[in-house]
Design goal:
Elements: E1 8-14, H1 18-27, E2 37-42, E3 61-62, H2 69-79, E4 84-88, E5 92-94, H3 98-108, E6 112-122, H4 131-140, E7 149-151, E8 159-163, H5 164-170, H6 185-194, E9 198-209, H7 220-237, H8 242-259, H9 269-284
Parallel strand pairs: 1-2, 1-4, 2-3, 6-9
Antiparallel strand pairs: 4-8, 5-9, 6-8, 7-9
Helix pairs in contact: 7-8, 7-9, 8-9
């Protein structure tokens, strides 16, 4: 059995979404089990409305870190003393029981290294959800079970709880060679942690991901390059299979190719396609490197 009680930290890395961050932080007052630490790491100081943070009924620590999702999340790991860190996107709305359920899950089973929850609605798969839409969807959710905790390949970075002691002991961190939005850094971290136990999906951890389509995410060309380059980089580290790499790469490439003919208003399909093609060219010439998006 694990510890009966654990200390929990909530960690939010954010970039260019000041207003939604303020709303999300205030929404965190809904938690029945309050976090022992609440950390926010902005890409730039102006990404956090310091006056708006008072809407949260507790202490929030703003952590400085280099620009990039992996860098910012690592800065919060370094700044925390918690047993478990719960990474939320700046536009993820957790159910009121989310942190209480995380504590119970990790205390009950010390083999669990990473847990990710059930996303009731994911605006990232479409045009995105407005804050009030997301809250209404969450309010309407009535989960009565059955509770299911099943092994999965990786956690989903918008809501992912990580046991920190093994990470600290083994020097496991988000890979900073995956810059900026750090596409698939959640997969890479999950597979590193899987060497020490299990990665699970738990249906009692519930929330809504708004998938906000505003500033903060990488431009289409950069993201398109990352879609190809990051998978291959992670596979070369041994944390993805060749099948997973090319299944995902082909799916992304085909989606960008065919949808670029009539792109969704909220997706830069042509930019992504150009990024895909640049990455494939670099692969063939031996120049593929995830960090090249810093030059695009």
């Amino acid at each position: 059995m694990g510890k009966d009680t654990l200390t929990l930290a909530v960690a939010i890395a954010t970039a260019g979404r000041r207003d939604i961050l303020t709303q999300t932080i205030a929404f965190m007052n809904n938690q029945a089990r309050k976090p022992d630490e609440f950390l926010v790491c902005p890409a730039r100081p102006e990404d956090v409305d310091l006056e708006g943070l008072v809407r949260y009924h507790g202490a929030i620590r703003v952590v400085e870190g280099p620009v990039g999702s992996s860098h910012q999340r690592n800065a919060m790991i370094a700044a925390s003393n918690a047993d478990v860190m719960v990474f939320f996107d700046d536009d993820f709305l957790p159910s009121a029981s989310y942190l209480a359920e995380v504590e119970a899950l990790f205390a009950r089973d010390p083999r669990i290294m990473v847990a990710t929850g059930h996303v009731i609605a994911d605006g990232a798969l479409g045009p995105g959800l407005e804050f009030e839409q997301g809250r209404a969807i969450l309010d309407a959710d009535r989960f009565h079970g059955p509770v299911s905790v099943k092994p999965v390949f990786n956690g989903y970075g918008c809501n992912m709880a990580v046991r920190l002691e093994p990470a600290r002991r083994s020097g496991i961190r988000f890979d900073e060679n995956l810059p900026l939005y750090a596409w698939l850094e959640d997969v890479d971290l999950s597979r590193q942690m899987a060497a020490h136990g299990t990665v699970v999906h738990a249906t009692q951890l519930r929330g809504v991901h708004l998938g906000t389509k505003k500033a903060g995410r990488s431009p289409g060309r950069r993201l398109g390059y990352s879609q190809i380059a990051n998978r291959i980089y992670i596979q070369r580290k041994g944390n993805m299979s060749v099948f997973q790499v090319w299944d995902g790469n082909i799916r992304n490439f085909c989606a960008n190719l065919f949808k670029s003919l009539n792109p969704e208003p909220w997706v830069d399909r042509r930019g992504r396609l150009r990024g895909n093609l640049r990455a494939l060219k670099d692969l063939l010439t031996g120049k593929l490197d995830p960090k090249k998006i810093l030059e695009l």
